[in-house]
Amino acid sequence: MPRRADIDPTEIPKLLPDVMLVDVLPQGRYRYRLIGTENAQAHGINATGRYLDEVLPGPEYREHVIALYDQCVASCRALYSECLFMSPRQRAPERHTKVLFMPLAEDGEAVNMVFVMQIFFYIDQMTRERHFVEARPYKEIEHVLL
Predict the structure, then answer these.
(1) Cβ proximity of 86 and 92 under 8 Å
(2) Helix segments in the chain, DSSP class H
(3) In the Cβ-directed half-sphere of 145, how many Cα atoms lie within 13 Å?
(4) Segments forming the whole domain that contains residue 117
(5) Fewer Cβ neighbours under 10 Å: the N or C end of the chain?
(6) What CA–CA distance (Å, rounded) separates 36 from 27?
(7) What is d(CA 22, CA 104) in angstroms, rounded to the nearest whole number?
(8) Are 102 and 116 a contacting pair, CB within 8 Å?
(9) Total domains in the fold of the chain
């Protein structure tokens, strides 16, 4: 597995707004080390330095996201996931997210960080402004261990 030092931000400047670096902590928790500007804006919060289990909305979605990190870390393999988020009123898709989780290991064996690339597609601007203000039902449409 690559190390964090193997990633040179100057080689991927256009991707940086959609990138997150997440520390894997010994207690089985995850902490945001860095959140790109697009992700901070999309989530309505810059959670850099905070634990995932403290900032992710709603217990069902929180468990879903942490399970994705757990699977990436335990398997030491990249993981891809796509979700549709449904409007609580219309029961129609209002946003779509695609996420790639990539494990990093300083020693080449034990995952100590996850490099995450997450992009959002929005139906309209109002949805973007409301993103993550309230937890919405989600439906995972793809989940692939790479």
Answers:
(1) yes
(2) 37-43, 52-55, 59-75, 125-130
(3) 11
(4) 17-145
(5) C
(6) 25
(7) 10
(8) yes
(9) 1
7 found inside a domain = no
Does pTM top 0.70 for this prediction?
yes
Q: CA-CA distance, 21 to 9, in Å (whole number)?
A: 12
| Residue 74: φ, ψ to 5° | -65, -35
Quote the tokens at residue 134.
Answer: 């309230």
DSSP annotation of 9: G
Cα–Cα distance for residue pair 126/106, rounded to 1 Å: 41
Location of structure tokens 């979700």: 83
Sign of CA dihedral 3, 53, 132, 96: positive
Closest Cα to residue 47, out of 31, 23, 62?
31
Name the token pair of 90: 């219309």
d(CA 29, CA 65): 12
pLDDT in tens, 54-104: 998 778 888 999 999 999 999 999 999 988 776 556 555 567 889 999 999
For residue 11, give the amino acid letter. E
